[in-house]
Amino acid sequence: MFRQWLTLIIIVLVYIPVAIDATVLHVAAPTLSLALGTSGNALLWIIDIYSLVMAGMVLPMGALGDRIGFKRLLLLGSGLFGLASLAAALAQDAGWLIAARALLAVGAAMIVPATLAGIRVTFSEARHRNMALGIWAAVGSGGAAFGPLAGGILLEHFYWGAVFLINVPIVLMVMALTARFVPPQATHRERSLNLSHALLLVVAILLLVFGAKTVLKGHSDAGVLALTPIVGALLLGLFIRLQLAAEQPLVDLRLFTHRTILSGAIMAMTAMIALVGFELLMAQELQFVHGMTPYQAGLFMLPVMLASGFSGPLAGMLVSRLGLRIVAAGGMALSALSFYGLAMTDFSTRQWQAWSLMALLGFSAASALLASTSAIMSSAPKEKAAAAGAIETMAYELGAGLGIAIFGLLLSRSFSASIALPDGLTGSEAARASSSIGEAMQLAQTLVPSDGEMLLAAARQAFIWSHSVVLSSAGSMLILLAAGVWFSLRKANQG
């Protein structure tokens, strides 16, 4: 029994940085923008590459764990995660940091299925296994929810690389404990990896996201605009075709023909888009516009973290009492309401109103996320439970990555259209200042003080306006999705 719970402690210890790294850079975005001189587009890639790569790689890594055993997978994933963390902490430019974050995602994609397999293998009694899974889930949701606050605390006292460097001693400790105390497992060499399919999916996702970003940024090269999303769409179509023909597919795409499962996947993506995208937007406004430190910004956002991190039990009760349909559609509708309210809230003078609306957003989005899990897992046949879980995992990670991309792109487009630039800027300076608030602040530091102050004032005013536009647009999209979910789940089990 001691070894069982020691294994759980090891699993939880390594899962904490994996969960936190999904959101830890949200409050660090302004610091990174100024420290590395990154463009707004590069900043989005630094943050969302982690979830986008992890979405495609987590499934074949699960198969790799079956082949070599979860102990070896945990050691391999932890080692890669630690090396990638060190590389990220030492990054000198945006390209280096993006590559390091992609490697971090591959390591995390190994760690997540290894931790789940470890719990499944270690705890033979259902009662103990459910307790262990509950602890694992709490660490995952809590780590992601409190990532911005953890990042703010580190940035308050150390340089930005500390948000990655702190992973290294944790990983070394986990690897030593795993090697010493975790027993080896049986392996299944016959299990297919389908690694080429996973890489195809990752490339397709990245090309589609890159295509969307170049379109919204108004890229001057028409060939890039047209070719990139087309290639991405063709690769995604090839991935779907290969999966339908494969004997052991990464994702059982036929499950998407079930309306409730499809609705659940859309809900999972939407809930993560709302939570992650909002946190990124808020972190930038609180620091760039209102002058808060990363730690102060993390504290200000605490209500959304607390509400999303601790809403699970209450949301589960609501699903049992009110039914899946009401909780799912209601969660999205309340998220839309909170977005509308936050779009009209002045954070410098109406803090309590902002905190109340953020708490509502955290609870409602997390409730929709739990409802999505219930929809997917309750509608899938028992023999396809693992495949359904894979769909949930992919939807969750894709939602996190797309939340950053969508909110970031809408913000960038609105900011560029609304900023009133002061006179006297050259053409290149004007293009740079209108690209993002981070680049406007970088430029302001190079101008004479009077011109710099005028540019800063214009950038802050444009960002506040853009913030309202993005949140209002997101609220409208959530209302439409809530209506779609309400009608799509009308035949779902209400209990």
TrEMBL record:
| Main localisation | membrane
Q: Does the keyword Methyltransferase apply?
A: no
Q: Does the keyword Cell membrane apply?
A: yes
What is the protein's membrane topology class?
Answer: Multi-pass membrane protein
* Pfam families in the cross-refs: MFS_1
Question: Which residue range or ranges hold the Major facilitator superfamily (MFS) profile domain?
Answer: 7-493
Top-rank taxon of the source lineage equals Bacteria
Q: Which GO terms of the cellular component aspect does the record hold?
A: plasma membrane
Give UniProt keywords alphabetically. Answer: Cell membrane, Membrane, Transmembrane, Transmembrane helix, Transport
Q: Which Gene3D superfamilies match?
A: MFS general substrate transporter like domains (1.20.1250.20), Multidrug resistance protein D (1.20.1720.10)
* Chain ranges passing through the membrane: 7-30, 42-61, 73-92, 98-119, 131-151, 157-177, 198-216, 222-240, 261-283, 295-315, 322-343, 355-377, 398-421, 464-489
- CDD domains named among the record's database cross-references: MFS_MMR_MDR_like
Q: Where in the cell is it found?
A: Cell membrane
SUPFAM superfamilies named among the record's database cross-references: MFS general substrate transporter
* Example GO molecular function: transmembrane transporter activity
**What name has this protein been given in UniProt?**
SmvA family efflux MFS transporter
Q: Which organism is it from?
A: Intestinirhabdus alba
